[in-house]
Amino acid sequence: MLTSYAAHFDTPAGYLDFARFGPPSRDAVAATTRAMEESAGADHTTVDTLMGAEGVARGTAARLAGTDARHTVLLPNASTGLFHAALGIRDGVVLAPRTDFPANHYPWRRTAGLGRATPRWLDPAPGGGVTPDLVRAALTDDVVAVSVSAVDFRTGFRADLAALREAIGPDRLLIVDAIQAFGVAVMPWDAADVLVAGGQKWLRAGWATGFATLSDRALESLEPVLTGWTGVEDVGLFDGTEHPPAPDARRWSITNLSPVTAASFAAALDLVERHTVAAIEAAIAARNAELTDVVRE
Description:
Layout: H1 3-6, H2 26-40, H3 46-64, E1 72-74, H4 78-88, E2 92-97, H5 106-112, E3 117-122, H6 132-138, E4 143-149, H7 161-168, E5 173-177, E6 194-198, E7 210-214, H8 216-221, H9 259-275, H10 277-296
Parallel strand pairs: 2-3, 2-4, 4-5, 5-6
Antiparallel strand pairs: 1-7, 6-7
Helix pairs in contact: 2-9, 3-9, 4-5, 6-7
């Protein structure tokens, strides 16, 4: 077992609800406390100092996702990223599983009424998930993207992201909700054009944490509909004019995020990076095997 990683947590014995919430580590709690204490005694340097946590978290998230900070943006949750992606598609059909978690339905349901992306629902086999064969059978010329969860919230089915990438070809977008996998499963995240994840589950960073990564293909093809004042060029220049969206993933920024939650996120991501996803995944697999044996007995 990965005792060195587990030693950072005070999770009660028998807790198994990680698919809904992963209790944060003492590191994340301490980082949150420090940030709050610093903000309580703020002087003219405090805000700029606290804001540094966002860059640290963005860099670590990028490395864990196999990309760089230019292609990564922090978000308050996975749903924000999915709405960015949905509204950014100007026209066309998006394939999405009917059995997916509702957070992966509503962005497409909303855009369908706006004359933008239109969902076409896939029906995986019972207990299964979105397979390359299922996607290939549904592909038509008007399909511009496929949206999937890396790990299905009901069944634990792991999508074969590399095979899905190959199945849809180089010109369609692969949009992946990684919230049930990131930090606990080694997967080819670079196969995704849009990768979104919240930090409250397996990353164990608490609520109001998350990120997205965008490929060059996504940056080029997705319209930055929700770009806010922090997602533009010359963000510190207040001249009363509209500035163009940032050329990188920062264009998905709407406003400043909480530096307190960013500090928690940075600490949580650092813990995962230091102990490695592969080691965490192996430890959980071993524990799952033990639990399975107990239940069978």
